[in-house]
Amino acid sequence: MAQRPENKAPPQVFYDPKEARKYIYHTHTVEVQTRLAERALELLDLDPSTLEQGPALILDLGCGTGLSGDVLSRAGHLWVGLDIAAAMLSVAVERDVDGDLIQLDLGAGLPFQIGCFDGAVSISVLQWLCHADASDQDPRKRLFTFFMTLYACLRRGARAVFQFYPSHERQVAFIFAQAKRAGFDGGLVVDYPNSTRAKKFYLVLQAGPAERATTMRQQALSPAVARRFVEPMTDDVSEDEASLCETRAPAGNTAIAAVPKNRQQNVSRKSVHRRVQSVRRLIEKQRLRRLRQGKPVRPLSKYSGRKRSSHF
Amino acid sequence: MRLLTHNLLICPVHKKPLAIRNVSAVDIIPVEYQPRFLLRMIPRLDWSLLRAAAVSVESDCVDALPEAAPSPSELPALEKAVESGDRLPLLDALQRLLLETHVVGGQLHCEHGEFYVIADGIPNLLADAAVNPSETASEQAACTTEGS
Lengths: 312, 148
Description:
heterodimer, A: 312 residues, Rossmann fold, 2 domains, 11 helices, 40% helix, B: 148 residues, N-terminal domain of TfIIb, 6 helices, 4 strands
């Protein structure tokens, strides 16, 4: 598997002019980014009463060259894009995007007044914040500062949708723990869970209780995109979250959530194996010590360090 | 950067509003008239900051802006006027200032002294891009004393 870009270099270094060009000329990259942004906007589920009063003001966290911003503009919204990479922003200026652009480090917090945005979207950014690029950077603190300032500058009940590429399950839990500490509620939406390539993770967070009743739209998706499921992240799922975490697959497709269960079993079997190994190592050490001391020892066999089966 | 974004922005270090100074270029890009959006934005705006920004970009709409923001009790009347299709001078001025006026070059000054540069319409708010005149002055002073 190719090396993940966030393991190569910090974002402001990795996204150099050459890399930024890809976001104009590579049709596939542009297509994927646009599709992700469309789905994120759909998950944002903006308040219809707000939409009656003109466009919404949306934050684009890690806007890059403004591909996701174009989707927001097309939907008639106003947006403010934030990014750390100067090369990506200059391409966005070249492309003449509609939104405002600001160069800043998301991990240092968002410098905005309280409660001024109607929502936030972020495409393929969150995984970059899980890395420390300097010795004085602590990803845990940076993520918490980011989520805390984001919570402050969103209106109450507004949503933030993050599409991201987690490297493993613990990273998802890590990110979610920081979001929860900052006061967010929400869950993880996984599109195409059975496909390795098309599988996409969306973290859907809600800043405080909604002023309106949550009306999560349950529209059926076309059969081609039917295999989606939603994995609740919290143990204590409140009613609000329950509606947030409802399965969005159309009726008839009930085969959901089977994949992660299997994976969990795999993980637990692996960890059991590791535990047995460490017990064996300990027994081996004790056996050698007793041998050196000239004490009687039993010979080592494949049964050493194993538990007796329960029906003995 | 639109003046709307500027109005919502605060200093990343001191969390205080930023003043626009030394403006070198301003762009005016007409967009669709959004009276309802502007009405919705009025309670979220820092009115004195908006007036100061309008003066610093030398906008011709400064005179159309009242001294103080419309109070919450005035908003329903404004809403009614918008719904009946009237074009209010206040909303025209806000449309021009908040949505159509872009600061392309200039500086954002915090009241604590440091400032951030706006280039190509993009303000650079990175921590290491902040220019602190007092620090640079003291550094220069240190250099000169070392030199002598």
